[in-house]
## 1
Amino acid sequence: MIWRALLARLGISLVTLWVVSVLIFIGTNLLPGDVAQIILGQMATPENTAVLREKLGLDKHPVEQYLVWLSNVMMGDLGISKAGLGAGLGTPIVEMLGPRIDNTAMLTVLVGAIAIPISVALGLLAAMHPGTRLDRTITFSTLNIISIPDFLIATILVLVFAVSLGWLPSIVYLRGDESGWVLMKTIAMPLMTLVILSSSQIIRMTRATVLNVMSSPYVEMAILKGVPRRRIILRHALFNAIGPIVNVIALNLAWLVGGVVVVEQIFSYPGLAKLMIEAVQMRDMPLVQACAMIFCAVYVVLIFIADMATILSNPRLRHPK
Amino acid sequence: MSEQTNNTDQSFSFDELPDAPPKRKIKLSWPGKIGIAIVLFWSVIVVIGPTIAPYHEADILDEDLFIVPGSDEMYPDTEFQPPSKIVYLGSDYIGRDLLSRILYGARTTIGISVLATLLAYLIGVTAGIAASVGSRYLDMGLSRVNDALLSIPSIMFALVLIAALNSPGIFWLILITGFIYAASVFRIARSLGQEVMVSDFVEAAKVRGEGLWWIITREILPNIAMPLATDFGLRFVWVILFISSLSFLGLGVQPPMSDWGSMVKENLPGLVLGSYAPLMPAFAIASLTISVNMIVDDLSAATGGKLAKRMIS
Amino acid sequence: MSALLEVDNLQISARNDDDELTPIVKGVSFNVQPGEVVALIGESGSGKTTIALSSLGYTKPGLEFVGGEVRLHGEDVISMQNDRLRGLRGQRVAYLAQSAAATFNPALTIGEQVTESTVLHGLMSQEEANRRAEDLYRALELPDPDRLGKRYPHQVSGGQLQRLMAATALCGKPDLLVLDEPTTALDVTTQIEVLKSFKSVITQEGASAIYVTHDLSVVAQIADHIVVLYAGEIQEYGTADQVVTQPSHEYTRRLMYAVRPPPAAGQGEETSDEHQRKAPALEVKNLLAGYGRTQNGAPEITVLRDVNVAIERGHSVGVIGESGCGKSTLARVMAGLLPAAQGEVLLDGAALQPALQQRSRNELQKIQFVFQMADTALNPRQRIDKILGRPVEFYHGLKGEEKRRRVGELLQMVELPQEFAGRYPEELSGGQKQRINLARALAASPEVLLCDEVISALDSIVGANVIELLKRLRKQTGVSFVFISHDLSTVASFADQIVVLYAGRVVEQGPTNAVLSPPYHPYTRLLISSVPELRVGWLEETMETQEAQAGIDRVVTLTDKGCPFFDRCPRAVKGTCDEETPPVRKVTGSHSIECHLSEAEFAQ
């Protein structure tokens, strides 16, 4: 029963991923005009345009183009970037992506490792003392943080830690061989920004989820059975809230994508999102496609994890009749 | 309820006890009241901003203006000037008046966001209601497409489309944003619509033989208007933040138009020079978005936090 | 002998958003002696649950203690500190909630929840508590007591959960049990069995109890003393026998009056045949209906099978059965809300389209549906004049002044004042809303009114008044009624024909007098014997009968072949009843029983 639910969910994820790939392909090929001409720009002559068209497979039917692109992507060939194409040789996108993916992954994993424990703890704390000054402070400040633009948080942090105090660099310059303290100091600013951004959402939702469970009849019953508060929260409430909380965390990490784009740009962090912005500005469509596919895939995986948490935490599915 | 006269049952001295709680009134908290004031303030600025602005948004101020009387400095810097009587909020990276640009920018930023949110609602609510009253297949089709749209992060979606359309104008920006946010509006409108659709009073209207139009306009819409209005506020905040982020990335509103998001971006280098120029427009955005959220918070408290629950699931 | 619990001038108030206090309990005093069961009886809003919870030193969120004392063994529990309260709750005073399904934590095993309080309080080790729990499962006649503790709440039935709640409460051998409407959510047939096991366990354990309920006949079975409450004040306080047999207070008498006598022959309304025409007003023939996709004329889940019912003009037909029997489905098929897979619905002898979309406005007008929950059946965004005015305009084309006058007439018909026209539904009480709900159906001037459990959500006095109104309207208008209810006494007092449904089949139907007197279908017999009588000692007598055994915690199962009642029937014949579809036996006139038993066997 539970396996069927999980398999069904996995199937939906795969279908979604496929639909997303179609949408991205349509999106990037939507533009009117000739890609080859745009790529070559001023260097376009009828001859080299035709050559490039053939090289890019643009003379084929769109469906065929899509299938070729999809099979290439599945085999790990993400195509050739516009960078250097004008000179006749393009850079394989896979080569460009490698270090960028590493950087972005490092950043987001660190954000998760810091933000998740802190925000779940704060969310629980607020939910355990609803209506108190502590709770009101937490809810009020998190509401404010999710209401303001991500770049404002980054700007304020720069102002405080880089400009006023001079402790941290306002621009990330990663050579790739940093480690330990030096590395932490280098990436501290984007890290802090993203931690603040993501924890606000997780705190609010953890609090709401736990409060929701705390107002359920079985928690009232536990109170009337004389069960101590600690046990009510840890055994009765958290046990039922854990599924929704994991769900919330996974969704929030997915929402981080948006924050990552802005944060990498503002701190010149050499990650995948910054690469994508550059690609968009240069209209390097194969590169845009590749980056978008990676982000969407991660997003779909995280949403899948979120749904799995919901399924796995359902006692009706775990213990069928 | 207390003043209710219950003369239902004649000669009945023990009235039926009222079972409905008295209607909850919307009570505004202090943050909510301040929020309303700020939102009203910006609404006025949208209308009269350019009229009361001391300079035009694109005016690069003359050096003469900055000459301090009695000083022998004939060619003073005009960029990143601190607030003064000439420029109340200081000047920007090429010497334009920040205040004027914020006043002009209010119209661009808020205008685009309102239009995009309205568009999102037009598409989302129409499709959402259609899905909730229509056949099972229509609902399934619309929902599947919507799920796929929702599984692309909105900023990715926008980046792909903007790249494809090659730095489009404001018209396309509104269209893209409206379309992207329509997906989440669809979801909420559909679930609200479905909830009302299965209620007994809609069933009663169906048994009476009422047509679809009556059911939508008289039974469903009045009952989902209030939660949708609250949701509109939240959605509007997200759209402002989204459009500002795009502008901040240099992919939204293009110069020389002033818009709060791009103003932050273009003045960012001033930060290390000790200028607060990038903070001013960022605070303008924050003041508006925080205010709307405070109002929404009060409204959803009045409706029993139902909406808040919906936002979690 | 000193009282176990003394409630002394207890006052509890509700605090609203503006910090104003509204009194909910206004100075209530009573005692519970050791080994005694005291019942708190009252309708919704009487404060009975609030009072009961105060014995655990607890108030629902938003309520607070304002004055008075609740003393357990002479010690005030209201002023107790948190850690002392924890020692009190579950150990000395235990609580049983109304809905066991909601009060069991879905994520934890039953065993853990039953023994939790006892083990936490250090009364027993986990092993001892487990053994005690198993003993209690046996005492409460729960199936499979050895392994029950390892199961999860969703794996057992509602009636079992209700008894497991009792096991939870009794596990720590408390001095006082607080039972809050523990049988209200159950079907009648399950109710008596749960009641019986509560009663015997309370006697065995020698516990005292506070029993909260709105149902006087349930109270008569279990209580020693009765406290009658209205709006937070005690109206009458005395021994069960005295309150039931010689109520001294006006309010108690009203409550008594609202309890309908147990179903028996001779109660049904007599109907004159003045409205008679040839064809019945509404008739269903060979109906097969259900939910899910229909393939080859058979739905995925079949709810109704071989249903033949005729509603004669001006008559009222009561449809009775336990939850899950298909009562509401039958009404929905008649109304066209659920198109039948097979069979037909005839109005005035003419076949109707199965789905309401294909029926004409004229046909729709003649069949009106009254929904169960007035709360949800009235659009909260429309005022009463609009709710009542729409069908008047829609079917009869009345506008302006004419429409307004008609709305006024309708309000008068359901005994509501004219100024209600300007109100929204939420400004009305439950009974008033149900009257509006009725008036809206009457606004169409229908020939058949389908009433789906119209009084089951109402308090007993209010419900009794609505029944009186229905009786009057039937005489006045000559409308035919289909009256659906799970409560046999209500149906018996209102209908002149009764249809007994079980698992989607009509097991017996006929005139009220015939159905309520022998010969009975075994299921009808079970239903009749399950209705509590308002007298002390009824429960014990009933539990002796073999019919009562059939009620023991069985769920209604839909079967494709044989008689669906087979697994509960005390007289079932294996090989016949579970294999062959029972024949319809004509008893007398229009009275028929669907059973394999012969007439001679019925007579036994």
Note: Residues 69 and 165 of chain A are 50 Å apart (CA to CA).
## 2
Amino acid sequence: MTPLTSDYALEIVDLNKAFGGLKVTQSVSLAIRRGERRLIIGPNGAGKTTLFNQISGDMRPNSGQIRLFGTDVTTFAPYKRAHLGLSRTYQIITLFTGDTLEHNVTLGLLGLLPSRWQMWRPLSFYGDLAGEARRTLDTVGLLHLANHPVSEIAYGEKRRVELAMALAQKPRVLLLDEPLAGLSNTERSTVKSLIASIPRETAVIMIEHDMDTALDLAETVTLLNYGRVIVDGERDVVIADERTREVYLGS
Amino acid sequence: MKWIAAALLAGLLLLLPLFAGDFYINLASQILIAAIFALSLNLLVGFGGMTSLGHASYLGVAAYISALLTSRYGFGHGAAAIISIAGTIATAAFFGIIALRATGLGFLMITLALSQVLWGLAYRMSDVTNGDNGIAGLTRPMPFGISLDGAAAFYWFALIVTSIAFLMMAIFVSSSFGSSLKGVRDQPRRMAALGFNPWMIRWITFIYAGFWGGVSGLLYVYYNKYIHPTSLSTTSSAEALLGVIAGGSGTLGGPVVGATLVLLLKNYASAYIERWNMLLGLVFLFIVLVMPTGIVPGLSKLMTRLRRGPR
């Protein structure tokens, strides 16, 4: 096991967020090593997605600190965090429905390239970008649909496009918000092996309700409830913990 | 088929002065100017999802600066044109910072308010702008010593500028930046998470649209040799917006078709009906009811349906 040095991909220190009187994040502190595979569990409304939104910068915490590879990004806009190696997927599919799968993934690639500012050259002239996008689509098994608009493909395929867009960016920290939600059993195992094949140097933090599948992918588990970290640690230790049973696995 | 049609249209546009009278040539020049203006507004409305009701500001600012510099301060047309465009860009950059604090309806209201400020200034600062009398007695430029006073000469000049404008804006929307812009229009949150800076993309587009608005303003003041505060008015902004939406926002042909329609209605209908605005409203209502996405997308949908044959 890697030693617990300052070599953290993501550190969250005493994070707090409230919507009016509703405390959705309460003194949350987490440290995720480079390449770590972390599963975040908790009942509905535990504050899991809200935590993701604060990490990605969609929401500002009321207090606390978020560090990416040692850089304090608490006040950074989302796009700046992306340039530090952070990518995410969404629980509610957020794709460009009128555009082709290839174009969707191309946007993922373009987001980190200086050529995104280029105004005088058609995007179609960038053959290498399209090639790269198609290669990424191939890894998620959707190359045959590359020229179809997103609106024409099935739900399970859209989930994989979500993943492909994030993977194309070769992130160092990847946030997956319920990547298995609404998938059939076969689709589940496809996406599971996709997640398992993410390069080892990428830290993956995943929110997922499907414990059977997700636990296999995780090394460490964090249990949230009412915006608080209840249990946090090695997978088997968290699963065996009394409080986990109480909050999540029990009843 | 498509190329033949394009070649025919290009030939028709190029040779128009050879078979049409001055009245029609002048009408065509006005259509070209309105087309550039509508195309520039469409960058905001159609491709950026930023519905502006103050785009006349940029046409007006460029026209007024050019008019003042050439008539009052003795500037040549070349220098005046450069300063006018620079002034328009600066105005758009400043207005953009204010307007882009909001999106949607808020954005629309701010653009409306800002353009009203300029319109008010043009009316009230009569010692500078000559107020309601406007600035008359202006001249047209003489590029490479060629006089543009004839209807045909001006038409060809406008056609060259319009062609460049159309081409530049077509490349713009198909470029990487154009793709970013459309992405920010459709999924701003996702775009930010992917590493794009939505605000900056919108602001740069706002300035670029202002720039082409300024170019159309220069042509406008050259054509009319006169400028009046009404060119800065909300009516002027709204007419262009109407054209963009009726023609088909977010397409390249739509704003051109829409601007043509508005101008033709304005010229012909106003000869017969005093309240031509009412007719324009009815035509607009008809278009929106029959083809909600605009004439160009509506017709192309109809064409594909006809080609596939009845089902």
Note: DSSP finds 14 helices and no strands in chain B.
## 3
Amino acid sequence: MPGGVAFYAIGAYGTAILMGPARPELIGGFGLPFPVALIGGMAAAAFGALIVGLAALRLRDDYLAIATFGIAISVQLVALNFDRLTGGAQGLIGLPRPLFRLFDGPNGFNLFYLGVVACMAALVYVALQVALASPWGRLLKAVRKDETAAASLGKNPTMVRLQAFVLGCTLMGLAGGLYVGFIGFVSPLDFLPILTFQIWAMLIVGGSGTTRGAFIGAFAVWGLWSASGLAVSRLVPAELQSQGGAIQVMLIGLLIVLTLLFRPRGLIGESETVSRHVD
Amino acid sequence: MMLFQVLADGILTGSIIALGAIGLTLTMSVLHFPNFAHAELITFGADIALAALGLTGAFTGPLAPLSFGLPLVLAGLVAMAAAVVLALLVDRLVYRKLRARAKKMSVVFGSFGVSLLVRMSILMIFGGAATYYSTALQRAVSVGGLFRVMPDQVFTLGVTVIIVIGLHLFLKHARLGLAMRAYAENPQLAGVYGCDSERVLRWTWIIGAALAALAGVLYGLTVQIRPEIGFQLLLPLFAAAIMGGVGNVYGAVLGGLIVGLAESLSIYVIPPGYKMAVPFLLLLLILYLRPTGLFGAAKGAVK
């Protein structure tokens, strides 16, 4: 889904608008506590996903890819141009970071926040494992593997796809909201299309269809991205830094293509499930 | 006066979109996947022509009233050839293997990977700065006192018309054109009837890539050449191709004109900052109302 970044952005902006301090020139600024704002951001992402999903999920996969790509562009345009809500190109700055004052310096806060995010990630991971092991999870897998077969058993593939889509987008909204809580501001530059490609690379490298694969892919790709960024800033002369950035993005593209070609199931392929009634 | 100018600009932008969309609609229907890297061939074409221009001797003697002369025409041919080579190479190295996979999305993801690689290579080689083919000022010509156009823009429109007619005749009468239509409709059946699928796929890439490069060169005549021009044309191209019905050459042209006109007319309705969202809104509208395109073509048929 090429538009993932859109829901990440909606979650981030939603959270920022709800928790930001009131300012006369802005519509938002409700000054809500961070957890409430975070839930609001997730709700905004879920609502956006519902509207988009209702429109797009009737489509064939390839049209869906085009449509979500368009959504990513549109959300970015709104972020850039709807100054009264999003602060325009400058973004929303000076957002209160949760419990920041309790810590002496940024290091303590960073460590605390790492803990918070790790807990959230663990929580999401466990919740997803439980959900995927449930009858609903089997339904999800059935639709992914063979939509026609699932439909012939009286399931509604469109409904299942919509649920999965909204759930996935809500989680991306959560990620966006958590990001805002960490850095304390939000700007359109945080949601460039490259983020979508990075997320894809994570899923493709990790092996799509499994939560474990997504986690491993995320760490692997982000590790590579950070390492290549470090290498570029150290090794490439200052006047060629923009070209260095291009090398980083090329690595992502190369990673996607090579993984698809030579390891289509990713690092961790989905394990085959065979009915226990088969020998 | 203002309205006529907006309409004229829309039609001229639309003819560029149309050229790119023809190639996209052909590859989409014959190869059966939306190639997200198609728009990068436009940037590639524009930049290769710029580089080739250095060799073919920069603007020695433009053919009045156009801003360019024989050197750019030659450079354009070089760019088209280079784009064809690139497209065939990528098909051989990447798409061929991915197309064979059961998961149809593999090749779509692959095309996104390719588009990143091509765009960033262009950025590395040609740099991020905006450039022009010619810095000479071109006088706009007034048409009946209603609106003003650049001679280059009229040239672009003329080229588009010639290509559409040529392509139509090719698809209707040439054996290869007929084979392409058959293959788009039903690859297995076309194979049974002895149509050489390798040849069909090869020529689909050749035509699509050459037209994309041509669109890039013509686009470069009227706007600045930047590494992201193709990427920004991606949504307009898809909107045009889907609106016209995938595989429908005339449809792609009409779709391109509609997208171009809608973009330029949108200034009356929404703030200019949102202009880039217009093709997307059109796309949503068409997918809702007529997912098979304005002419309701059967899926995958080349018309």
Note: The longest helix of chain A spans residues 106-133.
## 4
Amino acid sequence: MYFGLSEEQESIQDFVKKFLDDNVTVDEIRKIANGEGEEIEKSIFDSILNLGINSLLVPEEHNGLGAGLLHAVAVAQSLGSGVGPIPFVGSYVMAPIAIKLGGNEDQKNNYLSKIATNEIRFGVGMSEFVGAREDAGIEFSKNKINGRALFVLDAEKSDFLILANKSGALFIVNSEDKGVTLNKLTTVDKTRNFHEIILNNAEAEILKNTSDNSEIAKKVIDAGRIILAADTVGASEAMVEKAVSYSKERKQFNRTIGSFQAVKHMCAEMAADLEPCYSLVWQAAHSYDNEEISTSRLLACQSKSHVSEVAKVISKKATEVHGGMGFTDLLGLHYWFKRIGLNRQILGAPEIVREEAAELQGFNQ
Amino acid sequence: MNLEFGSEYDEFTQEVENFCKEYAGATITSDDQKFEMHDALSGNVSSTNGKTVGRSEWQKLLIEKGYFARSIPKEYGGYGGETDIIKSRIIAGAFAKYKVPNAMGGQGIDMLVPTLLEWGTEDQKQQYVESTLHGQTVWCQGYSEPNAGSDLASLQTKGELIDGNWVINGQKIWTSTAQYSQMMFCLVRTEPEASKHAGISFILIPMDTPGIEIRPLVDMTLKAGFNEVFFDNVTVPEENIVGKRGEGWSVANSVLGHERGSLANPNATLNRLNTLINLMKEETIDGRRLIDVASYRDRLLQIQGKVLAVQANSLRLLSAKINPGQNVKLGGMIQKLVGTELRHELEGLAIDIMGELGTLYEDDPNVRGGGSWQFTYMYFLGLIIGGGTNQIQKNIISERGLGMPREPKVQAEV
């Protein structure tokens, strides 16, 4: 019995973390956020791709590493911790899982190995299956797709998109198709991109196994939720570390503020609430890879909602520990605050996800 | 990650499961009030469809089977098995799953026995361990004093060695089960010249010694029953000391960490969550099941998230015991703080969803769960304060866990 990350998982986690710590300063994040960091962004992405994160979840028979979700969780924690400005959850977690589970042999052969060799990259939009806002939604008929998808993940510079309709069928569209318009959404989180996609008679193919089976879309969302929770755990860890280290340096009343119980107790509360979240997310990923859906889906839902709640409080308290500086753009703490805030809302905000968890357990009649 | 215990444990698991099935939902007939509180807190549930067993026979049976006192040597009344964390976990898991009553606990069994096994003389082990394990000798803990609470090491109860006897004077407070106990293990200042922590000794005191006065201290549950204990020239033999003179602080601290973890057992919390879910399915408001009220349901799900998180954390801690060298960082240090707050919140939710019914208590004919929701809600407020207040826990987490500076020393007030 061993409960935790393997040596291999820890090593890829440490590598991504160290790379971001050493190479991606707040100044660079700010440039990227202001739209002036295209080259930096590309070089960060290329370096992390060298670790093979694109092929992690692609099965071995399609030239991938065939790793489990826990591996991706290890990476996501580090991306959250360093507010990594690269595509991940959509392109390299949800897309390969969707194709692996939903595609027929042709579709798998067509796309999976190309993801693994980095010839193509996917954006993923499933918000309308989780809960449609503003009447967004897509319609598919005779290989054409029409409508509007909101909060599509990792769509910028993607080659293809996977989009879900309201009943959980999944469609592949070429991002370059003349019937596809990408409108970048201005969200609070500038470390990743989110798009509105307008579809006007675009060519599309359905992932064959998803035409009358929403279970695949659900399974893709389970994975996405666990990865977002892991990203949030990483971002929260960074915020706690920053708050603790700031409190050991900053002096007022001739003392470091970290010697005041008011500050110490805030830090202890953050650490105490965060610590069990690592275990919860790891267990959820392990369960996703090995256990029955009834067990793993509950853990996926509860990871997403519980970690979001814990992190909301941490992002507030850690900012407060920094005093006025925490509120400034100068320190850049807000990039973590906003990343946590965005992860909370996407693929189901806590109340929505808890309601799904209740249904799963047969609580509501 | 591997959550399997391995096939070498299959046979053992089967054996424990068979035992648990036989005694599923069994009721303990307590010959004694003193274990009532223990039963409520450990999540022991009485039901009408299980067997009935006497408290002392049950204890004896559990030791014989090796489901209790498993690694305590036979010569001291234990089962005499190897220490095997996985087997302990299998036992605890099966007992919780089948709602089989736990063995007796209490401060003698949970704290004094491990202390004596580590620090006691051969005579002390022979004299006390077996009778304590079987519930024949009940112990109370004499640590806190009116002016030594969170700052326990400033305790002032005095012990002087006169003609081969310790003569003890002073006062203890928050002493649970003092009125039922045959013995007390007590922290006493025996070296007044030494520094605060180095002046304390750990002494065993028979409760029928002349000069001891016990006054009940009723707490807010009106049930649990603390006491104040006064010592007026209480005289006990020199050999009743455990460890050397002035070592009492180390002797006591060797098991304090254990107590803190056990105050918030995640298995008991999970049992309570399941009981709460059943309550919400049975109780109604305007004919609607409480679980069908969206706001109640959402609060239930929030608590379930927390319960799952502490369960996962405890699996990680178990893993660290089995795999030496695994780093679990703050995992152990946070248990008391997180676990007691969670349990208090869980019990409080049950009261909230019952509305006015939630206020019923004690022997009211309409009370739900035998009054256990209000009782445990209040009792866990006591545990948030006791066993090192949760504010002290936050000091420990921030100083020892996060490396934050200690509060600067303040000049004594004049």
Note: Chain B has a mean pLDDT of 91.
